[in-house]
Design goal:
Layout lengths: L1 H6 L3 H5 L6 E2 L4 E5 L5 E5 L2 H14 L17 H14 L2 E3 L5 E3 H5 L16
Antiparallel strand pairs: 1-2, 2-3, 4-5
Length: 123
Amino acid sequence: MLLMYACGLRITEAATLEVTAIDGVNGLVRVIGKGNKERQVPLPQPVLTELRRLWKTHGNKRWLCPSPRRNGPISRYALWLTFKQAARAGGFRRTRTGIPIDRGQQSGDRGQRLPSTVPSTRT
């Protein structure tokens, strides 16, 4: 999840990331996205350090996030469930619009609420 947040990856991109996609020397990640389009995104040093620690726990030669059976990448669903559990543990929940908000903002003890409608800029 740290990689997804720091590098702006989609769930599928993060789940299917191969070890060889990490360029630690130049601080980049090669990502294959929608439509098999390839892009390179910056990889912050603290994230690279954490990825190295993660890789040492499983040692899979191909997948950065292997499935429990280690015969392929982790499923999108498993990664999504992990993301959902972490968000819930952090106090976030979904609204009717699908945009996550944290409970502190919901109860009004942090910052101001945004207006429910946006004024039109048309004249």
